[in-house]
Amino acid sequence: MLIVSCPNCGITAEETEFHAHGEAHITRHAADSSDDQMETYLFMRKNPKGVHFERWRHQNGCGKWFHMARCTMTLEVFGTYSAQTYAPPEELLAQIDAKRPGWRTPS
Amino acid sequence: MSTRLATGGRLVNKSRAVKFRFNGKHMDGFEGDTLASALLANDQMLVGRSFKYHRPRGIVAAGPEEPNGLVNLGEDGTFEPNARVTTTELFDGLTAQSQNHWPSLEFDVGAINKYLSRFLPAGFYYKMFIHPRPLWKHVYEPIIRHSAGLGRAPKSRDVDTYEHFYSFCDVLVVGGGVAGLEAARTAALSGARVMLMEQTAHWGGRTPVDGGDIDGKPAQDWIDATVAELSVMENVTLRTRTMAAGVYDHGYVLGYEQLTDHAPEMAGPRHRLWRVRAGHIITATGAIERPLSFAGNDIPGVMLAAAVRDYAVNFGVSVGDRTVVVTNNDDAYLTAFALKHAGLDVPAILDARVLPQDSAVMTQAKALGIRVLMGHAVSSVQGVKRVTGVSVCSQAGEGAVLEEINCDAVAMSGGWSPVVHLWSHCGGKLKWDTANACFSPDPDRGPLGADGAQFVTTAGAATGMFQLDDALNDAFAAADGTLRCLGLKLPKGAKASKAEHRDEAPMAPVWLMPQGAAVKLREKAWLDYQNDVKVSDVRLAAQEGFVSVEHAKRYTTLGMATDQGKLSNINGLATLAGALGEEIPAVGTTTFRPPYHPISMASIGGEARDAAFQPIRRTPMYDWHNANGAEWEPVGQWRRPYAYKRGDENTHDAVMREVTNTREKLGLLDASTLGKLIVKGPDAGAFLDLMYTNMMSTLKPGKCRYGLMCNDNGFLIDDGVVARIDEDTWLCHTTTGGAERIHAHMEEWLQTEWWDMKVYVANVTEQYAQIAVVGPNARKALEKLGGMDVSKETLGFMDWADGVIGGFNVRVYRISFSGELSYEIAVDASHGQAFWDALMAVGADLGVMPYGTECLHILRAEKGFIMIGDESDGTVIPQDLNLHWALSKKKEDYLGKRAHLRSHMADPNRWKLVGLETTDGSTLPDGAYAVAEGKNENGQRNMIGRVTSTYHSPTLGKGIAMGLVHNGPDRMGEVLEFPGTDGKTYSARIVDPVFYDKEGEKQNV
């Protein structure tokens, strides 16, 4: 069971207080989008062995959403950050670069 | 014979006799005995039958690795199957029954399987029972089910209580042997919060049995002193009878404490589940001795050498008068010495090794007058239900018998394997230790925590340090390293406890005895005692292509018994590697998963049973309903009245009465459970236009509108009436089960997609009691109570207004889910009961009756109104339900709009909503499928529709239903066939789903 820190209320707690909601930074496609775009938006998800950006909610706590960068293999948590963003913060990416060189181009 | 010795027994209190029963037979033991030691003291070596061949099985081990000694323990409310005799502490009045035999332990019919063993090889079930297919269901499956499983399932309710404890510490040390004590002592010196768990009732592990001095005093004295030192430290928590069952992500550990199993008369919970978060975990879990693979190694009386020693030293029990020791290492000699010192006979030590010169222990053995046969092995063991002798051969040969030795016990040792389970649970990797022929933890590839750093360290024998001095040094280093990880420091001058190094000759790996054993011997050489897997089975699996260790395990069932292969795995891997001509590390291990040793299901449940199982939500009128005949229906966590029974009326009649009364007079429904969400803010209208398929921003204050919600996949997820309260406030009703879900859904979109929108959502469901006043007399009742104008002219259909009725501040919605004249009236939750009472009183002359959820369902079904969860199931879109009118064409975007254009959603072949009317007036079975001619690729009838709601309508005097049917709306009048699960086929005609008051005049008066 993971330990998760909520960036909204600052609480660090058991995973049972939170809920994971899959991959983060998915672009919503709606009116005027192509079938391929809709397929990608609704169904296509990454399944990396390694660094993964995820959506989480502090469900049994403050109720707020946030993002988490996590290693799917070792379960290391690189950091949590605001849900109100389109991309992970540069600072966090730099930290992950340092810990997992080459992660951006999975083999 | 196994018997109680006059001397010895460091753990038993011979002044306290304990009586117990085994298979109905009265037996005697002592306080401090395990059930295993007490059974052996009563010469009860035979304790069970093996799973497949029903071979006689005796006790093999003295700890949790025991594969054979499983019993049904206790009776009735304290009954428990598969209790291990070696970990069950004896208490006065204990009752146990052996398992897996019929009709009795001594005479077992299933044992005939052993004569068939040639025909029951590995994979037998897979090969035999696949053809012909029809035989599976009626012949094979019932027989296999009858013979499957160990023990019996409990029949009575568990009378005991259980609890969970949450705990936090810096360092959790698992294992209270000398390594665990040393690690805990060292870690505690730094001031860190330390918890130490020991699975048995005793500290010190096996060092007091094996001997040795620590810091210049006997091990037991050092143990006592260390425990005394730890027990007075504020920062240390010590628990015996507490097993760490599993290590989970980020330092989470489950500890299983058996509080009263050893003394059932004690008050309080029986088991406690510790849910521990540890900064760092040190596993000092020791090692488990391996059996040797030789013919007849499963005959009762063949035991692990260390277990034989444990029974003699710890419990003063001799497992036999004459014990042959067979070994590939020095350690087993300690057993020979212990037996000799107890005055028992050791006719020979068969040592498979050929050493250039006698090791120290060999010299010692010879000095005690024991024959030591170097390079020798067991060819086969004689005996059926008990060992009678061994045939001796050369280890190097094929088993030619050199000599027969009479004996009644065999003590075997194939070396020791570190208990790596906890290390491995969270991904710790292993390396092959050639010197000790075992897998040990690879310190460079440990389990990683939240910060990416290793969070488990091993200590002592669990690391592969089998000598006392090495184990102590390793434990000290483990604690030191752990403290560094945590940023803590040892006080200056802290030193490891010291012990002497023993002069030891190296062990030699022996995976089969004798080395060249022919098929006849291999077929009798057991690897897994409980599941009956032999050396020959693993070789066969390899030959048949099961080269992966995970496949070979499942094919042969090696290590899949309740002991999870604690004894069998390494021998099995080595056998597989041998058969494949590979090195053992190349074959690898199977995966270690929690729990280390079975824990009770009840401990996992803890206090969560009965009323505490889950919270129950009650409306303000709950007690009134309860006192007035309510039959309860769970709806999510809410309890709603299903119907109110009067006198000796049955449920069906009550429902029929409520429907008729509401249609003809006046009904009251407690609608408080309906979700109520306030959506407020400058962008609330725009936001709701995205949430709902229809337009909510154009709704005028004072008006209501029915709305549909889809997810962005296009599927219908909820519906309800939305009321606009003022310029920037809307109140959205959700389904009863939907309030929290839809609130979360709105928040998700607000926080993660449209976070620039200025909107606030509040769930006010429980702030209001809501009562539906329904029926032709509804207005009269409200007018009698007096107050605000509820006339058609002032408060028309789909209007709402705030006001006062009968002195209560109310919000009245003129909405109808029944098709009748209907007012849904919200009052503050605290006034709910009083307002309900007022309505019941004023309605007395108007024929008022409360109605429940089943009546609600029938009323809405008669009107063709859909119900989320009946007509929708997560795969249904509004178009399927002919709700096109609720899909806005003006809005550029709303959740699900674009998805509805996808080919599968726009497919004209989707099943669509229709009404269904049986041709004979009966009621269709719920969920029944409509069938057409022909069969699909699975040989089932082709299906063209299904029933989504079905009821008997008292209003129409016949069965009515709704269903989704292929091209349904185009097939009006057609009769479809619905085979029921009762063997009957029902015929129903496709009709308009609105059965009652098609023009909607009754609700609009």
Descriptive report:
The complex is a heterodimer of chains A (107) and B (1005). Chain A is of the alpha+beta class. Chain A has one domain: Folate-binding superfamily (Folate-binding fold). Chain A has helices at residues 35-43, 90-99, and strands at 3-5, 12-14, 19-23, 51-57, 65-71, 77-82. In chain A, the strands form 2 sheets. A 4-stranded antiparallel β-sheet of chain A has the order 3-4-5-6, with helices on one face. In chain A, strands 1-2 form a two-stranded antiparallel sheet. In chain A, strand 1 and strand 2 (12-14) form a beta hairpin. The relative contact order of chain A is 0.20. With 1005 residues, chain B is of the alpha+beta class. Chain B is 22% helix and 28% strand. Chain B is built from 25 helices and 51 strands. In chain B, helix 13 crosses helix 14 and helix 13 packs across helix 15 (569-580). Chain A binds chain B through residues 1-3, 14-15, 21, 28-31, 33, 35, 38, 41-42, 55, 57, 59, 63-65, 71, 74-77, 83-84, 99, and chain B through 248-252, 277, 427, 448-452, 712-713, 744, 747-748, 751-753, 755, 892-893, 897-899, 902-903.
Number of strands of chain B: 51
Query: What is the C-alpha radius of gyration of chain A, as a whole number of Å?
Result: 15 Å
Strand content of chain B: 25-35%
Largest sheet of chain B, in brief, is:
7 strands, mixed
Total beta strands of chain A? 6
Question: What fraction of the residues of chain A are assigned to beta strands by DSSP?
Answer: 25-35%
Spatial order of strands in the largest sheet of chain A: 3-4-5-6
Secondary structure category of chain A: alpha+beta
